[in-house]
Write a structure and sequence with these properties.
The structure holds two protein chains of two kinds. By secondary structure, chain A is an all-alpha fold. Chain A contains 13 helices and two strands. A six-stranded mixed β-sheet of chain B has the order 6-7-8-3-9-10, sandwiched between helices. Chain B has a four-stranded antiparallel β-sheet with strand order 2-1-4-5, with helices on one face. Chain B is of the alpha/beta class. The chains are: A mainly alpha, B alpha/beta.
Chain lengths: 316, 251
């Protein structure tokens, strides 16, 4: 009898060994492999950015060995293709900033107002209709906007101002602004909707009107999100290419008159890349220098935005 | 005690849901009235009709009348913002604004046009004193309201409501998110405030109603079952359902 008892004990032991066998080779390999795979995917965008920055820096460096950096940064004449050649970036910069400024003047007030309407006033059904329409607007190819500027906005401007040319900064700026309205609106609306209902109730209970609640409670509480949307809009406007190429002209022009034809940095890059400028020449190098300038501006803007967003953040 | 608020055959619907059924009730001036009853019985809904916070909820429909001090508050001539200024409210969760302690209390007066710094300073001080918070915060009024404890935040919300000089204070389960000591402080505060303000409180806690209030109203399924002096309601209820509820047989 004791022998048999020992046997059953051993049997029980093997049985329990199988029951408590937690090893699974396949799963453990997968678990180790997955993070590596995901890391590789994540690094694609980082490596691309790094590659772009390195190319930009090295080409720009070569360009500045031929053209003095001060002449580039402070020169007021941009004539890279027609002699006498001159590489002063200020005309391109002023053109770009003028477009961006006009665009923000259009997009930020309208975008913000529509965001306030959607988040504070609109009934659910209206929001359900308007939000998808806004997103469709954001998906329209920018070339379409370019022709919209050229064929609709420009004639209107010319009717109002006799001096306006066929290509002018105002038309392109307005349409770039229209293009970025959905972005400003959508991002600001997200930020405002995230403001808790209880804060609104608190203000309503003190006798605030809907508009006062929107302006004095919701907007301040969502301020960091709103700033982020405005800066993103600014970067988007500064980098916009198609609309300005089509509607703003290609005349590097140191002017602050929005009715004149100008050229932006992006439009210049398009002009040279499309032409037959040989690789390695100064003209070729100039597009990298211009690109670098753009990159530095947007980079600084992003840092500024993060700083502002942090400084004005209201926790709730 | 003179009646200040008269509620007359009030019916309220959220869409198809009949939330308040034929409620008739008077609420006395400068006293504490407590609304009790199980969850979903309509006590908070009735409270929120008194400053018309239900207006904000789409699909709300109201029949019958509520008059405060002789004015029908659902008539077209009533300015909702002025009404809410006179009928302050404190919510279940303390909801200070993401601003400093000072700016929280000054928010209402500023909203209604007070800009003079000295005047604001005075309002902030008296309101915080009335809410028995002054001693705890007087040295750091510029600090964020979020640095305060839950109980302090709730007293700040009371100070904020008092700063616009209301006559009536609605408290919507104002202590249910607080610990027992903070709850006690708010209850003591309510006792002090009733000399100057008419207080209507919704509470989950029957003992709180018994401790604090002068009049108690018992709700069930959107109806007012019984209301009377708190002492009488708890010691000698006339309706069987009230007795079942206060003796803990349901709810």
């Amino acid at each position: 009898m004791p022998k048999q008892g020992a046997l059953t004990a051993r049997q029980a032991q093997t049985a329990s060994k199988e029951l408590y066998n937690f090893k699974n080779k396949r799963v453990s390999i997968m678990n180790k492999l997955m993070p590596v795979l995901l890391f590789l995917c994540a690094s694609v965008s980082i490596l691309t950015t790094l590659g772009i920055v390195i190319t930009l820096i090295s080409e720009t460096f070569q360009f500045f060995q031929k053209i003095p950096i001060l002449d580039f940064l402070f020169g007021t004449k941009w004539s890279p293709l027609i002699p006498p050649k001159s590489f002063g970036v200020l005309p391109l910069l002023s053109g770009t900033l003028m477009i961006t400024f006009i665009a923000c003047l259009v997009a930020i007030p309208i975008g913000l107002a529509s965001a306030i309407y959607l988040s504070e006033y609109a009934p659910k059904q209206v929001r359900k209709v308007i939000k998808p329409i806004l997103e469709v607007l954001a998906g329209v190819p920018t070339i379409v906007y370019g022709y919209f500027a050229l064929s609709l906005i420009t004639p209107l401007i010319q009717k109002m101002f006799d001096s306006a040319g066929i290509f002018n900064a105002l038309s392109a700026g307005i349409v770039v602004g229209i293009m970025i309205i959905p972005m400003v609106c959508s991002l600001s609306e997200d930020a405002m909707s995230a403001v808790p209902r209880s804060l609104r109730d608190g203000a309503y209970a003190l006798g605030a009107t809907r508009f006062e609640v929107a302006l004095k409670i919701v907007v301040p509480a969502a301020f960091s999100g709103i700033v982020a949307s405005a800066v993103l809009a600014f970067s988007r406007a500064i980098g916009e290419t198609m609309i300005v190429t089509v509607a703003a002209g290609s005349t590097p022009n140191m002017t602050f008159n929005p009715l004149e034809s100008i050229q932006t940095m992006t439009a210049y890059i398009v002009q040279v890349s499309l032409g037959d400028t040989p690789h390695g020449t100064v003209e070729y190098g100039s597009i990298f220098a211009v690109g670098m300038t753009l990159f530095v501006i947007t980079f600084l803007l992003n840092i500024l935005a993060q700083y502002i967003a942090r400084k004005f953040r209201e926790e709730y | 005690m003179e009646a200040l608020i008269h509620i007359d055959k009030l019916n309220l619907y959220y869409g198809a849901f009949h939330a308040l059924k034929n409620v008739t009730l008077t609420i006395p001036e400068k006293a504490i009235t407590a609304f009790i009853g199980p969850s979903g019985c309509g006590k908070s809904t009735l409270l929120r009709t008194l400053n018309r916070m239900n207006d904000m909820i789409p699909g709300t429909r109201i029949e019958g009348g509520i008059s405060i001090g002789g004015t029908e508050i659902y008539s077209n001539e009533v300015d909702v913002e002025t009404l809410r200024k006179k009928v302050g409210m404190v919510f279940q969760q303390p909801n200070p604004f993401p601003k400093s302690i000072y700016d929280n209390v000054a928010y209402g007066p500023r909203l209604h046009g007070t800009t003079n710094k000295k005047e604001l300073d005075e309002i902030v001080e008296t309101s915080l004193k009335s809410a028995v918070l002054w001693e705890e915060v007087k040295d750091h009024l510029k600090r964020s309201a979020f640095g305060l404890s839950g109980g302090q935040q709730q007293r700040l919300c009371i100070a904020r409501a008092l700063a616009v000089n209301p006559n009536i204070l609605l408290m919507d389960e104002a202590t249910s998110a607080l610990d027992p000591i903070s709850t006690l402080k708010i209850e003591e505060l309510a006792q002090e405030l009733k000399d100057k303000y008419t207080i209507v409180m919704v509470t989950h806690n029957m003992h709180q109603a018994a401790r604090v209030s002068n009049q108690t109203v018992f709700f069930l399924n959107g109806e007012v079952i019984e209301y009377s002096d708190t002492e009488k309601l708890f010691s000698n209820p006339t309706d069987q359902r009230t007795e079942d509820y206060i003796s803990g047989r349901f709810g």
